[in-house]
Amino acid sequence: MATTKIHARALLRASGGPRYAIALAVDALGTGLLRPFLLLYGVMVLRLSASATGIAMTTGVVMGLVCMPAVGRWLDRGARSTVVAASMLVRVLGVALLLAAPAGHVWLFATAALFLGIGNQAWPAAHAALVATVAHGRERDAALAGGRALRNAGLGAGALLATACLTGGTTALQALAAATGLAYLAAATLAWSVRLRARPAAVPPNGGAGGTAPRMRALLAANVVYVFCLNVPEIAVPLVLVTQLHASPLWAAAIFVANTVLVVTLQVPVTVLMSRFSRRTVLALAGVVLAASYLGFLAATSPEHRWSAPAVAAVSVVCAIGEIIYAGSATALVTALAPAPVLGRALSRFQLSTGLGLAVSPAVMTSLASHGPAALWGSLAASTLLSASAVATEKDQATGLSDSRHPARAGS
């Protein structure tokens, strides 16, 4: 029978321990200080054009994905906390380049965005591999959910603190960047001090990464579409509210804050509640809930009346629940499907699909929105339902190791 209760102490232990949890919180707080305002840093501090800044940031995200195969191989050689620390340290270098870049130097900004992108792309796979090495079965799923809740709390707190400081202009932005770099450095030091790696039994004797990672073709393709839900509160909803419904931007801000609060408070309870069902079933259900929310957005935005904005806010709660179900099952499913010797490669492939979805979703959603609510929400609903169907019908490869993990050991 599936575990439906997770105690706080057990959850903390399964998440990597107190020091690692502090590292995650510090890293998330630092990320929240700068990441939402990186575009403003390029425009206000470095005096770059908005288009040049945006292109540099997008290039950094996309090029950051190129490092994922190497990250996967590193993880498959047994590294765990070292990879997490490295993903944080590379962002320290990115912040240092930001602070050193003179006004007008777009290439230094682009290089900084590249290092930040590498760290941001490498961290999720490294973190998931570390948790999968420490925890097992449904306890691992809850630990992954707890890490996401903690990270969202840190991101939200950092963003709120940064927003309060923005009245200081360019000086405040530079101070926020410096604080971000110090936070990344502190987090990397804490993560490295955990000194966790997989036991040699989980890795082939020659130090390589033998075995074959599960293909998961339908899952990876579906994940590109699923991950659009993460950008709905940041891009699609504000775009529709402000440009189509002519509502106050305060509605978009309130919806974003509400989404963050829901993720922080419900991610672990919902993941534990869903543990009575198979991970693949839960992931398919997430697609159905997300598709239903997209149809709800379509119904709320098609007639332009004074209740449209409140209706969008109400539907956003459904969308947030779908996002929570998706986030609690997707990575957990990958860690359950992949044998331990190729866990890193499986997670790197999954992160590639996630990064691709996050990279293309702003362009796709803004393009669809220009053709009206039916084009935007109808297309998202149809593609998400198709993805849910693909997830539900894909056959798992028989690995014999789906829910087992070799225990971890302390080490360098």
Automatic annotation (TrEMBL):
Membrane-crossing segments per the record: 20-44, 50-71, 83-101, 175-194, 224-244, 250-270, 282-300, 312-338, 350-368
The record's section on Pfam families has: MFS_1 (PF07690)
Keyword entries, A-Z: Cell membrane, Membrane, Transmembrane, Transmembrane helix, Transport
Q: Which PANTHER family match?
A: MULTIDRUG RESISTANCE PROTEIN MDTH, RESISTANCE PROTEIN MDTM, PUTATIVE-RELATED-RELATED
One Gene Ontology MF term:
transmembrane transporter activity
Organism annotation? Actinomadura luteofluorescens
| Location in or out of the cell | Cell membrane
| One GO CC term, this protein | plasma membrane
**The organism's place on the tree of life at top rank:** Bacteria
Residue runs in coiled coils: none
Give the protein's recorded name. MFS family permease
UniProt KW Transport keyword: yes
What is the membrane topology noted in the UniProt record heading this document? Multi-pass membrane protein
